[in-house]
């Protein structure tokens, strides 16, 4: 069967090997044809003939298997060579990621309050009327609800307009004393150079036995915090109104762009508003059934802080994902 063996030996690709396999071992192949001759072989020679055939078949099978293994190995080597990656090759993609300035600012704010032993609390972004408004002394039809341009959900829920509902959730879950901050995303229908429909706030709440915290404590902690954030700036507390605090104040820092001389950013007032705060309104404590306590609360916008810290002129730029802006914060 030398001629059949040659067929295998001469093959040099897997495709032709497959064709050859069918030619030799297939139902209509050469070997089958040989075996068919067996019936015409005279009786005494049959045994030797059959043994010879089986031996040839085994030899061919062995040749085939060896050839197959060799060709397969060559094919794999070829692929490995063609698809090789030179991991030592120097990359031109040197751009590295960095924390987004809003998150970096958030982290800086959180660090301050962690150092003062505040806990970090969380709440849902889809709120209900009770937590977002009612319990915060904003009853239905209260005109102050208009201050917040609310996104309403079909089922009566709201996208939380501030992080203040987390005050309520925390007070309902724990007992005083409380020292907490609540960082997170909030939503309002607003879009211009200082407003985006989604932004981040950090809420703060301190609750102590009655008489143990005062506006003086609030003033002290926020002044220290603002110096930590903005360095050597002037700070002023301006009377204001929030339904959930009484008295309430807004806090301004001297404009960091013009150092208080007056410019476009501070609308020529020399001051920039950065915080809302106040003494917790007794109606808020009533809605969570707290008695004989006093406390203070504050809330700030993280994007506004980031914008001021990094002198970003348009708040919307923080959300455009333009790498030319982001690269500057690496
Ligand atoms: N929730 C207020 C706002 O979003 C901020 C604030 C929080 C004011 C806590 C006072 C006390 O504008």
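^ Assign residues to that structure.
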């Amino acid at each position: 069967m030398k001629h059949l063996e040659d067929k295998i030996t001469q093959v040099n690709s897997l495709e032709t090997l497959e064709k050859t396999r069918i030619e030799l071992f297939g139902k209509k192949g050469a070997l089958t044809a040989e075996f068919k001759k067996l019936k015409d072989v005279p009786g005494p020679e049959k045994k030797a003939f059959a043994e010879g055939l089986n031996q040839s078949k085994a030899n061919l099978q062995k040749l085939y298997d060896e050839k197959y293994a060799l060709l397969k190995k060559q094919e794999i080597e070829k692929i490995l060579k063609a698809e090789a990656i030179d991991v030592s090759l120097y990359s031109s993609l040197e751009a590295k990621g960095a924390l987004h300035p809003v998150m970096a600012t958030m982290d800086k704010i959180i660090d301050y309050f962690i150092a003062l032993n505040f806990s970090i609390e969380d709440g849902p972004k889809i709120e209900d009327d009770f937590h977002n408004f009612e319990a915060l002394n904003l009853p239905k039809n209260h005109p102050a609800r208009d201050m917040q341009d609310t996104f309403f959900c079909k089922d009566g829920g709201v996208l939380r307009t501030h992080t203040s509902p987390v005050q309520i959730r925390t007070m309902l879950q724990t007992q005083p004393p409380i020292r907490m901050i609540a960082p997170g995303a909030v939503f309002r229908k607003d879009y211009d150079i200082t407003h985006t429909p989604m932004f981040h706030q950090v809420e703060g709440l301190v609750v102590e036995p009655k008489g143990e915290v005062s506006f003086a404590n609030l003033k002290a902690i926020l002044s220290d915090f603002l110096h930590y954030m903005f360095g050597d700036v002037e700070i002023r507390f301006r009377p204001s109104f929030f339904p959930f605090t009484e008295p309430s104040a807004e806090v301004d820092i001297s404009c960091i762009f013009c150092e208080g001389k007056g410019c476009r950013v501070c609308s020529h007032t020399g001051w920039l508003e950065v915080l809302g705060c106040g003494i917790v309104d007794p109606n808020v404590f009533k809605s969570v059934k707290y008695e004989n306590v006093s406390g203070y609360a504050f809330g700030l916008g993280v994007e506004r802080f980031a914008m001021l810290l990094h002198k970003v002129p348009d708040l919307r730029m923080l959300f455009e994902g333009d790498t030319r802006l982001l690269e500057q914060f690496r």
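The chain has a mean pLDDT of 92.
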